[in-house]
Amino acid sequence: MKIRYLFMVICCLAMQTSLQASESGTVDIHGFISQGYMISDENNYFAETKDGTFQFNEMGINFVSKLTPNLRVGLQFFARDLGDLGNDKITVDWVFGDYYYREWLGLRVGKIKIPLGFYNEVRDIDMVRTFIYLPQSVYQERYRESWVALKGASLYGKVGSDALGTLGYQFQLGSIEAGKDSGAAKHFESLSGYFEITEDFDIGLTYAGKLEWQAPVIPLRLAVSSLMYDFVVTGKLKDAFNPTPGLSLTIQNITDEYRVIVGSMEYTWGNLILAAEYSEIYTDAKFRFSPVTASLPDDDMEITMQGYYGSIAYRLFDWLELGAYYSEYYPDKDDKDGENIVAAPFNYKKKFQAWSKDACLSARFDINMNWIIKLEGHVMNGAADLFESDNYNEDTPVVNYQPVLDIEENWMLFALKVSYSF
Amino acid sequence: MEIIKNGRCVFISSAVVMATLFFMASASKADVLFIVNKSVPVETLKKSEIKKIFLGDNPVWPNGEEIKLVTQVNTDIQKEFTITFTQRSASQFSNHWRKVMFSGKGMIPESVQSDHAVINFVKKTEGAIGYISPQSVTKDVKPVTISE
What we know:
The complex is a heterodimer of chains A (422) and B (148).
Chain A: H1 2-15, E1 19-22, E2 25-40, E3 56-68, E4 71-82, E5 91-102, E6 105-113, H2 144-147, E7 149-161, E8 165-175, H3 183-192, E9 195-197, E10 202-203, E11 206-214, E12 220-237, E13 250-269, E14 272-290, E15 299-317, E16 320-330, H4 339-343, E17 356-366, E18 371-382, E19 398-399, E20 402-403, E21 410-421
Antiparallel strand pairs in A: 1-2, 2-3, 2-21, 3-4, 4-5, 5-6, 6-7, 7-8, 8-11, 9-12, 10-12, 11-12, 12-13, 13-14, 14-15, 15-16, 16-17, 17-18, 18-21, 19-20
Chain B: H1 2-28, E1 33-36, E2 44-46, H2 47-54, E3 68-72, H3 76-86, H4 90-102, E4 110-112, H5 115-124, E5 128-132, E6 142-147
Parallel strand pairs in B: 2-6, 3-4, 3-5
Antiparallel strand pairs in B: 1-5, 1-6
């Protein structure tokens, strides 16, 4: 909380200040802060939403300067809180040098936003989108820390003509991170049910890329983007679920291939924006247990997650924009009805954890150029998006060394958010 | 069934044609004059070049000099400019620049609230380009011809 107040003071001071860095230009300073409130009638969604929560905010401040007409450098600090994720820890969101050679070729080196789908690069900026929550079928909050930026280099550019439209590209190579306390770790813990992640992810070289075509004449854009890497994650059986005290059972997930691909389409007609995106995440992994037991043999697995949504947003007045989307997400596209997860051994999971369906309605009020307020409601079916560790039964979280979940198939979420940017 | 299929095809085709014509019609109506600083070595710009410049895709003039943008906010000409030359509403244009700025891909243009302020900025800033109503132009700046 103190960090948020300090940030607001910095914002006020920055509004009055423009630093003169050199004869080449000034240092531009911009920033934003958002504070939200969420409440759900059932199920805790990334935070203690059943009781209502203010653990829902983002803030950022950036400094950018042009050293020469072709070379720009910049840095953005960022902090967020979403339940147990972030906890207002200040991080370097992006920092890079950007050299523009020609329209068809530029180079960025540093920590660079990953161009996944239309909105990953700006997913933390509440001001630039209609919705409080981007569709989780494509923009999963659990992977945000890992997928938002990579450290490395990027080539970018655009080619095209008036007749054929413009094709833009970005190709990136570098590394990403996922800590043992990250959303990705919590997601793995939810998938496994019984294990907790004990070490930071060991992630190999990461490749990311995007091709985006802007049609001539009509405001249609199509894109395909991808993110690929391999990793190893290590965990151990949680003590609460260990029937043999003194026996330490560890699990290692060796994922040889983790491939995300997103297809995107957006059509703008005056004040109306129609968008649709489709995502698949392919995983080729091996599970290795130590010690090896008959009941938990080593296992190889190939799974494809699937998600998609369609959205519509319309600006009625300068001060009011309305939006809606429908989104579906399946952790395993070959088990959309949940038959496999309930049939698995040692299973306590519910069938409706095999999917998440989300119908969202949102209203955005632009008070002025700097302030916005958003109201949003979600009607949800399914629990694939939930972290199990947020939804244990309060009275009896463990029975016979198995987790007991307090989750419902049908539930609703409401959110309110106020944002300021400069 | 054949009639319904053909009817559907005709409807969809008509909708696409109407949408295209709508945007072409919108694009052809413009009462916007582009002006540059007298140091800028450009007399004519294509509409597609204007779009690239004002969306930040092209940051330098042909002589390598930095392009310095000035846009207008809360004016009628701003709305006409954004629709006609960038195929975006005024709020979508502002959103575009916020995305560019907060992802580190560019620096937000100077924003002013009148033709007079645009002229002042352009005349004293080397490499500058802005837009005004044609009747506001003065001899302190150089008008640019726009070609299709």
